[in-house]
Amino acid sequence: MSNRKWSFGLIVLVLIFGYVLLRFFSSTVKVDDLVQQMEQNNTENTSIKHVVLIAQELDNPFWREMQQGADEAAAKLGMKIDYMGPIRIHPPEQMKLLEKSIAARPDAILVQGINDPDYDLLIGKAIDQGIPVITVDADEPGSRRLAYVGTDNREAGIQMGKLLVKDADGSGRIGVMIGSELADNQRLRLEGFRSIISAAPGFEIVDVRSSNISRIGAAKQAEAMLSERSGIDIIVGFSALDAAGILEGVKAARKEAVRIYGFDDLETTRKSIAQGEVMASIVQQPREMGAQSIHLLDQLFKGKKLSAQHFIDTYILDREQMEFGGSGR
Fold this sequence. Notes:
This protein is α/β, with parallel strands linked by helices. It is built from eleven helices and twelve strands. The model is unreliable at 19-44 (pLDDT under 50).
């Protein structure tokens, strides 16, 4: 009886061993097949250039538009875009993604400037490894990036200032909302805006606050601004979420007579302009930024030298233009 049990146990062990061996052999074959497929793909796709686009915030509409523009241009020029970014705005995460991207050795990298010396060093590291870097949306002028593609942010601030002075009745106490005190593009927009307002008699900037690129932050800061500073009759927002947030803050403070000016053309901003709640917005063209960046890389890959700055025009979007179906471009 015991011999039978031993024999049965031995048979079971042999079967189990055979099954494990078969699975191992099958797995090895599959791995070999995958390796062959990867080698074949690499051989077939040597002409395809892989470009990494690192967004400030992964699902932000502005960056999704830029991705679309880059994808469309890449499809025509034999490139592939690998799009990535933090779930929420977080510059340290952008730095980590840049570092990981360099390690992956793509053919080029598109990044937003974040005005950080360590970031400059990473860009230099990429250049040293033969990976071209182009900044988009915000520049990193102190780095070794090859080119910047985006808005002339100081000029956009000037454009906002001229628009406001033209619209107002010769005077105005102005509150300003910037997206971030650290962002170079926000600093330049404010600088350009100040240059116009300071030269316009009857106009005064009485408060400048940061929304932290958040609609909720803009709403809270706008409400606080109106309660703490008397006589503000105009509030200007310089990042995409500011106009919607400022509008909420104005309503919470029961100061509906305040005139609001925004930046970019999110759907909420467009609706508020159509309803007369926001006066106008200075609109960037992120899709064109993405496309232009890819066209520049195409020139670079063909041996052409790039100029350092490539500005994409902004335009004014107001109620009149929307009613007549125009974009102001």
